[in-house]
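WARN no homologs supplied; continuing
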Amino acid sequence: MVFSSTVFLFLFLPLTLCIYYNPWLRGRKFRNVFLLLASLLFYAWGEPVFVFLMLISIGIGYAIGCHLHNGRRKWWLVAGVTFHVGLLFVFKYLTFVLGQLGLLVGSLEDFAIALPIGISFFTFQLLSYLFDVYYGKAEAQRSVLNLGLYVALFPQLIAGPIVRYDAIAAEIMGRQENLMDFSEGMMRFIYGLAKKVLIANYMGQLADTIFAMNGSLSVGTAWLGAVAYTLQIYFDFSGYSDMAIGLGRMFGFHFAENFNYPYIAKSATEFWRRWHISLGSWFRDYVYIPLGGNRCSKWRWVLNLFVVWALTGIWHGANYTFLAWGLFYFVLLMVEKFTRLPEKLGVLSHIYAMAAVMIGWVMFRSETFTAGLHYIGVMFGFGSLGLADDYFRLYLGQTYSVLVAGIVFSLPVFPWLKKYGGKLVENAEPVAALGLFVLTLVVAVSSSYNPFIYFNF
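OK structure emitted
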């Protein structure tokens, strides 16, 4: 089920809220059990078989978590990590690895294993639970239902943010729902929905059209496609995160922020402090620091970073394009750390950062490594059909208003307005949010293009 679908907006969410906040059954146990059942229904709506896989993962995680305080706790942790990482490997990477080793007979499609939606996210959350219990950051959960709620909670189940167990363990049983959280969560959901429906979907159609031309492009059209995808993936993923955070607030949960206007960054390093914050912090705390972080020799430190960025790329999928994308950032970060390039560029540092980000997104979006290199080459005039063509003028003329809106709202416009607008903006915000919601609903009902990019990961 998709947050921006009519089934979710007009049936699932209203019905879930009505039952959750019914005036007769208001106990914490009832609300937790009901929210877990609703979350399982939400997942089973699109994954009727794989919901059992998630339940098995929760059961294994619960059983292992109960043993992480005994004398053989390290062995139990190894067993838990092996199981969950192994499960992720089988469903996400096994076919690709066997194909690269030449161990498959026939085409990869004949042996393709269906990828459960959101498996990377709920696997990382279960690993977070095991690590947090092992390191003493949180107590082992004594109720399998409560652990299931943490993993399966529908606002963040499919595409994050990756919620750390120690961050919301207390809220599973001790949260206090209130009208302020509910209203702020509702507005946050509206903003995320608008990002998705009014900007990401239109930019997605433009990006899909241009990338489908297989590199037979002018320089201008190639850059237009890169800009469109850059805007699509930001508004799509940050929109989902906004909706997840907003829905969490509506049910009394407080999820950490996942984006902080990454496109105002002046370096690749800063970009990754602002982009997919929950993933970056997960790898930092559970991979980079345990490997030794920067408390080691220079070459060991470089190796630690290489491992983290290779894993960051591979986490997104079994394709050389994702690995290349991750290692591309490893190289950029090394260059920035050893040469202080952004500081030397001065006012041009933002142009450098955004050019690097867009080049990275082209490789990320491409079907193959070769196709990505070819597209990037066209962007710089190699194998292009000239500087501009009729397609460039046509697509730019059709989408310039959404392009401009995307660029403007990728900047911290709302924080600026709230800072300098005072009471006027504060009083006008609920009315503006209501109008935005109505407009978004109208567009959502009439639109058939609705995929979330990070559902694939």
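The chain has two domains: 22-176, 181-446.
OK
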